[in-house]
Amino acid sequence: MKPSPTTSLLHSLKTNSGAYDSGEVQEPSQFLTDFVTREFNAFLWISLIAITALLLRKVLSLFILWARARSIPGPPCPSFYGHSKLITRQNLTEVLSVSHKKYGSVVKLWLGPTQLLVSIKDPTLIKEMLLKAEDKLPLTGRAFRLAFGPSSLFVSSFDQVQRRRESLARELNGRLIERVTVIPTKVVDCIMERIYTFMAKGSIDCKIVSQQMAFTLLGATLFGDTFLAWSKASIYEELLMMIAKDACFWASYGVTPFWKRGFWRYQQLCTKLKFLTQDIVQQCRKNCRLFCHMDENLHNGITNMGRESECGAPSCCGVAMRDNFSLHELNDDLNAREEPCGNIMGVMFHGCLTTAGLICNLLERLVTHPEIQDKIYSEIIMARNGSMKQDQQCVDKLLLLLATVYESARLLPAGPLLQRCSLKHDFTLKTGATIPAGAVLVVPVQLVHMDDASWGQDANEFNPYRFLSKTGNGSDLVLNASSTGNAEKVVNPGESSFILNDPNDNAAFLPFGSGTRACVGQKFVIQGVATLFASLLERYEIRLHSGSQSDSKPTMKNSVPQLFPSPEIVFIRRNS
Ligand code: HEM
């Protein structure tokens, strides 16, 4: 029988001590061999103990995970691999819809023996969870890191994003909100210029025009006037969209797939985007210095005429945006590991995709509900007549327009699920259910937005009036979801006074998430999109192209709205 490592260690110790006892002198080479053998054996033992401890820890945490998860209701596992075989990206919301109906508002599914998914549908519990679970899933962070390099936004861990989040939120909701009323006048001109080029070829696809609008709105906000005159803007937009198509796919590999040719092609696109971002940032800085210089000259009484074309600012711009503070917020104070421009690319990527989705949905609702479009137009004209400043539209008065933006965001949120996790700590919900650290937490936003209990019988119908309350005889008559049938007839902008409800008062309104990792762009994007549409609708009527098929009522499957194809639309200039 082979001696075990312990016996050989003891034996060698014994023989050596015996040799010294008997006064024999050992050969130095023999001593060295014994020493190395002993050291090696000791190393093997230590490794064995460490690996066993590690495995035991893993098994223990697995038992703890299973024990904690037992208290959460959910369908039994069909196999060792849990429910992963039943779930695809497309049908997860449907699976969750069925499970919530059967098991209640908190449901668990096993995605494998070690991966637990917990879905929450009750609005109050959702709010609680979104406050307590501070981290994002590592997959999201990986997708952004692979595409744009390490950055301090859109990272999984809350500790790493907190500071940048707060400073960006301060800027977006402070100075930028003030400025957003100026941007769209210029942006509309630029957008319309491109829309006319599209229309020269016939009608336009709603998706393409929304992408274009979102990109121009965000680009002008982040980079100022320089962006509107930038010759490479359309290449930038194309690259962003190409990256968006593949980002999740490449991030889903546990190990970066260096061996795949497609991955290198993807990386090339990302590098091109990085160079383009650096280019626009440099141009912004150059123009900013030029503008500052112009300002000085202006103060010194030197005429400014002709300088605008000198510095490349577009002719359509009435007001120049001189300090690109958003760039400072995103690009300054980077730590050594961060990619310069990483945050800028991340914000452009997320902002463009989500804003394009909202604009597309809004356009679809307006063309399929022309009566609402007409009312919004009257509201715009009335607000314009009452406005002191002829070149600016005060969007806060356009209640029906704002309500239509909210309703569009509610009906088709940017993604079907909100995802979170708590990487380090378990936490307990009010119901007593303990959510283990590392569990994938999801909110099926589409289901929550279509829930009759939160939105009334007409939850899956387009009804912007649900966000308006009518004040009458001193008491508020709230035209909410349950009374919407009549509300539309009663509400006529200008005839009586209305109040726009804060959509966030309803815990079931989640297109921008909520809690610790909620979208920092919500207020800005709603103001920006509403101001953009106020300018656009004042000058153009948007209609469905005569050949285009669009069903205003999306079909439902297990309470999940099915997307309708993007309609073809046309912009018709108004006479007045
Ligand atoms: C219609 C447009 C937009 C929609 C629907 C949207 C939606 C969202 C959602 C659902 C989240 C995750 C929230 C959560 O987990 O609770 C998010 C995060 C975020 N959004 Fe937006 N967003 C939009 C536009 C923007 C814009 C324009 C910006 C910035 C200029 C922005 C900046 C961010 C940031 C920085 C985060 C990450 C927060 C974090 O990880 O801590 N968003 N957004």
UniProtKB/TrEMBL annotation:
Superkingdom of this protein's organism: Eukaryota
Transmembrane segments: 42-66
Entry-linked InterPro entries: Cyt_P450, Cyt_P450_CS, Cyt_P450_E_grp-I, Cyt_P450_sf, Cytochrome_P450_Monoox
Name of one Pfam family that matches: p450
Cofactor(s) listed in the protein's UniProt record: heme
Keywords: Heme, Iron, Membrane, Metal-binding, Monooxygenase, Oxidoreductase, Transmembrane, Transmembrane helix
Residues that, per the record, bind heme: 519
GO molecular function, one term: monooxygenase activity
PANTHER family: CYTOCHROME P450 FAMILY 4, PREMNASPIRODIENE OXYGENASE-LIKE
UniProt similarity note: Belongs to the cytochrome P450 family.
Identification of the protein by name: Cytochrome P450
Native species: Carpinus fangiana
